Amino acid sequence: MKKVLFIDRDGTLIKEPPEDFQVDSFDKLKFMPGVFRELSKISKALDYELVMVTNQDGLGTDSFPENTFWPAHNFMLEALKGEGINFSDIYIDKTFEKDNAPTRKPRTALLTRFMEGDYDLERSFVIGDRLTDIDLAKNLNCKGILLRNELNGDVVTSESLKDALALDAQNWEHISSFLMGLNRKSIVVRKTRETDISIRLDLDGSGASKIDTGLSFFDHMLDQIAKHSGFDLEIKVNGDLEVDEHHTIEDTAIALGEAVHLALAKKVGIDRYGFSLPMDDVLAQVSLDFGGRSWIVWETEFKREKVGDMPSEMFYHFFKSFSDSAKCNLNIKCEGDNEHHKIESIFKALARAMKMAVRRDKSSLILPSTKGVL
């Protein structure tokens, strides 16, 4: 599902003239500090659709002729476009506040397609400088970001809007840092005739986990992924264990790989590559590349039929299925004597490799590829 940033215009993208609140000439057109740099970062690094929503009181009437509005407005759009900032849609309400039109913010009549379509509004935001923008967020069932400026510095958010306010931002840098910090999450639900799986993943978590697959040793291994990667990971699986363990392990790997792939989104700024790890008698090496292509090299053997309640033949199958759906290369080598240590060290090494590979440099949001795509 698509996420959206509904962005106000005057007071948010450009400064709002205090004398008449109309940007109707080029000499009144002044951009908000940091908007080019920070909104460009957001556009390049994150997977939000950008939508402009603005009230322009009486546009098209004698008090605000359209021929004074469009030249400055179009120049603004071209300047933003030059920095890679493109709006998929622009919604302009031309009514006066006294008209109480259903199309005027904070009302939602202009935005019904987002409420009825394939959009993840719970993880979308309205960004604006007025409380009506936060009220719009509440009405859309998303969250609001209030941008402070010289005209609204003393505005106090009402108690009724407190739950809708995600951020009281001092500037655009504050907004981009906030969005960068919460973006890399995913939810995957996978249902077949054999398994029913739900996964919640946060790549920028603290290593918290809640795992229930019905297989105790598999739960223990998946806990290792969360703990040693720093990901927050919730996995709930109802599988046909009365048949055997195969479908539960395979489908969990597929769903987990998909969750990682979705959370990485555009992959801008990630380190991409990532690890070897000793565990008593064992040395496990997991080399990983989130380069967009799946491949696996598996150089280890297990002598026991099972470790815990997990069949040894499913170890390779888990990592192969994960590689396919995460669209990553995995090169796995392990040597040692203790079978429990061997597979646990491989899971831990995978976790550390992912922690290294997904690490993101927010000051250098470039794609780590000469191809220009991952």
Tell me briefly what this model is.
This protein has 374 residues and is α/β, with parallel strands linked by helices. It contains nine helices and 16 strands.
The gyration radius over C-alpha positions equals 25 Å
* SS summary, helix count: 9
Summed over residues and divided by their number, the pLDDT gives a mean of 91
Can you list the strand order of the major beta sheet? 3-2-1-4-5-6
Percent of residues in beta strands: 15-25%
Stretches where pLDDT is under 50 for at least 5 consecutive residues are: none
Number of strands: 16
Portion of residues within helices: 25-40%
How many angstroms separate the termini? 20 Å
Structural class, by secondary structure, is alpha/beta
**SSE run:** EHEHEHEHEEHEEEHEHEEEEEHEH
**Major β-sheet, in short?**
6 strands, parallel
Overall morphology = elongated
Describe the structure.
With 374 residues, this protein is an alpha/beta fold. The protein is built from nine helices and 16 strands. It has a six-stranded parallel beta sheet, sandwiched between helices. A four-stranded mixed beta sheet has the order 7-8-10-9, covered by helices on one side. Helix 1 runs parallel beside helix 5, helix 6 runs parallel beside helix 9 and helix 7 runs parallel beside helix 8. The mean pLDDT is 91.
